[in-house]
Every structure is written in C-alpha cells, then in structure tokens.
Design brief:
Elements: E1 4-5, E2 11-15, E3 18-21, E4 29-31, H1 36-43, H2 51-60, H3 67-77, E5 81-82, H4 88-95, H5 98-103, H6 105-114, H7 120-128, E6 132-136, H8 142-151, E7 156-160, H9 184-195, E8 217-222, H10 228-231, H11 239-244, E9 248-254, E10 257-264, H12 272-282, H13 286-293, H14 306-324, E11 334-339, E12 346-349, H15 365-369, E13 379-380
Parallel strand pairs: 4-13, 6-7, 6-8, 8-9
Antiparallel strand pairs: 1-5, 2-3, 3-4, 9-10, 10-11, 11-12
Length: 382
C-alpha cells in the first residue's frame, strides 16, 4: 500500500491539535488530537511512499513503533486515505491509458470522496468502461445525457431516435448546430464519440482480459423529445425491460416542467404501469386524457426550455452514474419534478401497485433505500 490523503478533501487546522479534512458537511471529518510529529507524518502520506519507508521515517522523528500503522488504519477507517496502486486489474488497465485517465481525473477525485475505501474511486471509474447504456431520444435532454455519460467514462453509450436534427434540437452539451439536417442517431453517435475521454474499449479490455462478448444493457434512459412520454410513460413500451429485468430511468421536459424518474428496478420498484394505475385511481379522467394526448392530433412543437432541459439532463446523468456506480439514487421508485419559473425541485414516491403485473408489490422499502447517504462524521485520535 502507498497511502495518500485524498487530495480532493481540503485540509485545514480547526485549532492547534485538530485537523479538518473536507469543507462540506457531507464529507468533512475532524481528526484529533494531532501532535506536531503526527501532523508531520500526515504530510508524508502523498502516495509516493510505501509503509516500510513511512515506518522508518516515523522512527527518525521520534514516533513510537506502530504509530504509522495505527494512523493509516484510523485514516482509512474514516475514509480519508486512497491508494494509487489499488483497484484491481480493471483499474490497472485504465492506468495504462494516461490520456483517458487525465480526462477523468476530476471525476476520479469526486469518486474518491464519495466511496471511502482505498481504490474505490478508480475501481468504479474503470468499471464504467465495461458498461453499456442506451439512451432513447436525441433531443435537448437525451443527447446531452448521452454526451455526459460518455464524458464520464461509460464505455458504450447508444442513442436511439429517428428523423433528422432540427434547429430546435440544438443545445449546449447536446447536438451542435452543424448537425442540423443530419440523421439524429448519426449525429448523436458523433457527439458521443467526441465526448468520450478515450476510444470505446474492446470487449474484455477494461477488465484486463481478452474475452470477446458485448456487455448487456446496464441501464436504459428514456428521454424522448416529446417529454409527455417521460411524464406519462406508456407501460407497453417497457414490457420487454420488465421481462428481462433491465433497469430504466425516465427523464424529460413537458411544457414548462422537467421530470427525472422514476428509476425502475424491475420486480423491485414501481414501474410505469404502477404510475398510471395510481394516477387513474386518483383521477378517473386520466385514461381519457392520455388517449387524447397520445393520439397525435393537433400536435404542436413540444416546449423545451434550453436551460430547463440542461438542468434535467444534468440531474438525469448524475442519477444514472450513481446507479451505475452501485448506489440507489433518489429517483429510485420516485419522481423529481421542477417547473418554470420558480424551479423548486420536489419529489414524489411512486409505490408498487397491487394490480400491476410488474411483481414489485411486497418488496420492502429497506431493499430500495439501505446504504444510501453520506458517511457519518468521525472524530478520532491522531
């Protein structure tokens, strides 16, 4: 192990014998009491020295035997230490691509803060390279989501849509102005390639193996250009995902409202069918309204404010990455909405419906929410 204090966490002395790592309450940790010699030892934890060298240095400055190991163990338990050699074969494969890793260093720093174990950040970053995500929709929301996921290191990002790019599809971070007139799917593929930190890995490469197999879908993101299909999704369109157990996340802008969620884990959380059954019970006119909305009559150009679409795309991509990294984001079994002009985000839990065929009824809330949340603050002796 070559321990290093996580560089993303700002370090400052609260007073003479207490060090605070991290500026924000979600990840800040106080360490104390810390004497001068221990403070000097902490300064040496920069990833360039192994434990034998650190033990020798500790003896030279008068620290007792075992002080280095005790300090490293305590800092590791508090989530403050990383190891630039950890992470396994997939992480080693990523380190061999310095150009790609340099593009992802800010993402790696963030992941190292969120995931406390040494090597946890690069392990998850490397795992993204083996994942395959499908984005359904190449409008202002969908194209931007695809670009962000690709830029964040997801190895295979597919975008499905029809027709040609229109001027109103163009958005910062999404389809560029020069793609107007091109097929949307082709323009989106080019956008994904330009956004990627590296070429997509060949099958097995990200794990340091020579296996040849296309990865299965890790996630489907439904981000239609007409946001009604995300706001009131058609359960029939998701039948195959329910049957195959494919996680899927809805997102879009309809009129002046942006929606993110629900993230559906088939058999475990509420699906589009649960959503519509619940809505119909609360509003008997709902099925009649949906039939008219979906009929295509008097179809106008869908409203999609560019700033709202960008905010929705960013939140969608963040929730998707959290899920791909092994967490259950706040959109799991829930929908987040915000509306112009006030833009106050609000959430609604969507519960499995007894009459839905998705089999989500009966799953405990604990299954969906355990393990979520920032690590607790810790105070420890130096």
């Amino acid at each position: 192990m070559h321990p290093t204090v996580k560089p993303a966490l700002r370090r400052a002395w609260r007073e003479r014998q207490t060090v605070q790592f991290g500026a924000t309450p979600a990840h800040a940790v106080m360490v104390g009491p810390v004497d001068t010699a221990t403070g000097a030892l902490i300064e040496l934890l920069d990833g360039t020295r192994g434990l034998p060298w650190l033990r020798q240095e500790a003896r030279s400055i008068g620290l007792p035997e075992g002080q280095v190991d005790a300090l490293v163990n305590r800092l590791t338990a508090a989530g403050l230490l990383d190891d630039p050699t950890a992470g396994g074969p997939a992480a080693d494969a990523l380190r061999k691509r310095p150009g790609a890793l340099d593009r992802l260093r800010s993402d790696l720093a963030s992941l190292s803060v969120v995931h406390p174990e040494p090597g946890g950040g690069i392990q998850r970053l490397a795992a993204r390279r083996a994942m395959r995500v499908q984005v359904r929709g190449a409008g202002r929301v969908g194209a931007t989501v695809a670009a962000v996921l690709s830029a964040a290191g997801v190895g295979a990002v597919e975008v499905l849509d029809g027709g040609c790019t229109e001027p109103w599809d163009v958005a910062p971070g999404g389809l560029p102005a020069e793609s107007v007139g091109e097929r949307r799917d082709a323009a989106a593929r080019q956008l994904v390639r330009r956004s990627a930190p590296d070429r997509p890995p060949r099958a097995g490469e990200s794990a340091g193996t020579t296996e040849c197999a296309e990865p299965g879908l890790s996630l489907v993101i439904v981000a239609p250009r007409d946001g009604l299909a995300a706001y009131a999704p058609d359960p029939a369109a998701a039948e195959d995902w329910i049957v195959t157990g494919t996680p899927h996340l809805y997102a879009g802008v309809v009129e002046g409202t942006g929606v993110v969620g629900p993230l559906v884990l088939p058999g475990g959380t509420a699906c589009a069918g649960c959503l519509e059954l619940d809505r119909a019970e609360r509003d008997p006119a709902r099925p009649r309204l949906l039939a008219q909305w979906r009929s295509g009559r008097r179809r106008a150009l869908p409203a999609c404010d560019v700033a709202l679409a960008t905010a929705v795309a960013g939140m969608t991509a963040a929730h998707a990455l959290s899920f791909l990294d092994g967490e259950l984001p706040a959109s799991t079994g829930a929908r987040w909405e915000t509306s112009l002009p006030l833009l106050d985000w609000r959430s609604e839990t969507i519960k499995p419906h007894l009459d839905c065929v998705c089999s989500a009824v009966g799953k405990s809330e604990r299954e969906h929410t355990s393990g979520i949340g920032p690590p607790p603050h810790e105070t420890m002796a130096g």
